[in-house]
Task: structure prediction
Amino acid sequence: MSRIIPLTAAATMLAVATLATASEVDAPDPNLVEARSIVQEFATTLTGELKEAVQQGGPVNAIKVCQERAPAIAADLSERTGWTVGRTSLKTRNLDRNSPDDWEAGVLADFDKRQAAGEDVKPMAHAEVIETADGSVFRFMKAIPTADLCLACHGSDLTDDVAAALDERYPGDLARGYQAGQVRGAFSLTKPL
Ligand code: HEC
Result:
């Protein structure tokens, strides 16, 4: 059993017509608002540190930001907010840490379809309340677009030193060959209700 949470005003209006009450239109789901602000903080902090590290020492130097800082920022946000916060992808670089579960894989496949159908990746997201054996959980995923900055480490034309540094750390790396504008992966957040 699950319930999709409407993300846009138009979708909310539609939900109102079917099942929601008028007050839900005026007040967006507080879990959705919270999840979005956590994602924003994660993205802003990580991209800022990544850009700085690339500027200071090139992409090889910046690999450690993705390897060490991304999980550290996620852990800090999880601890502060009570949400489980992480990143995932259908083509992961760190298979142990970032591989999607079934629900995440389904949403990511849907993001790819939505992108192929012409939808803008930047605001692309999905929210759902899911009933589990342990009770209801709120799950939120926000697509991460591939920007030019990402191509040094996720594109199809890596320099030899970047490729070698990645090979050494990530023997099963699948996260190469992306083009700017594609869905690179998603932030994924879960909270028990
Ligand atoms: C300097 C190299 C580098 C750059 C630049 C880079 N990444 Fe990564 N990326 C990595 C590494 C290394 C990992 C593995 C992190 C880990 O061990 O959890 C990773 C992992 C990820 C993941 C988690 C899923 C996975 O594949 O394991 C996402 C999502 C991601 N990167 C998105 C991006 C985006 C979007 C950009 C551009 C804004 C970007 N990366 C730029 C090196 C890079």
